[in-house]
Amino acid sequence: LEPCNHQGRTGPCSRALIDAGIAAVHYSVADPNPAAAGGADTLRAARIEVTGGLLADDAERGPLRAWLHRQRTGRPHVTWKFAATLDGRSAAADGTSQWITGPEARARVHADRARLDAIVVGTGTVLADDPWLTARMPDGSLAPHQPLRVVVGNRPVPSTARVLDDAAPTLVLRTHDVGEILSALADQDDVLVEGGPRLAGAFLAAGAVDRVQAYIAPVVLGAGSHAVEDAGVSTITEALRFRRENVEVLGDDLLLNLIPRAQ
Fold this sequence. Notes:
With 263 residues, the protein is an alpha/beta fold. It folds into 2 domains: 48 residues, no CATH class; 186 residues, Dihydrofolate Reductase, subunit A (3-Layer(aba) Sandwich), CATH 3.40.430.10. The protein contains 8 helices and 10 strands. The strands form 2 sheets. It has an 8-stranded mixed sheet, with helices on both faces. A two-stranded parallel ribbon has the order 1-2. The chain is elongated.
């Protein structure tokens, strides 16, 4: 990120670089915050060589993705994550869904959770699956960082639900409105929508999905629930289309990382 140019809890990075006698500064992305931007010009005025845009695409799609999105849009960066079979099922006809994907894919999910700010699920998922929604290490212990667990919907959550324990903080929102959910999470950078199909459909219909992580397992169920319902599409011309960022092989499973076509 471009060195900052403002006085916050610490002094400007641009001033510190000048004082340190740095001869050249190379950065990827200009700071989108008007209060902090301008560091490059300050450095150039001090006769420091400055290059911007270096590996900008890597930075935009990598560690700065969620932070930059919130700075530019005022709302969290939202990833919809789901696991499905080859025939698009997220659960069998009897409602069972553990485990569609293999251990490598599940380990990746926990590694991602350990970097997230919040995980959002609906009350239906809590009532059906009683998920813990924690980030766990390979040995099963809790990761040092735990995301905020967010449960949305109007049905009451039992006091015995695992999502209400003290392993991680939990926020219960009595709403189905995507705008209200995002407003409540306005201070979070990186938000994961993890379940279930109606909640995923609501975020898709609202145009509030910035990335899709689709874990596809080489499994066929032939019946059962789909990964998404009612995404606001009634005809093929209204289809929500995505483009591939990359594909990862995780054991026998594939992880498709996708972003909306408009991006």
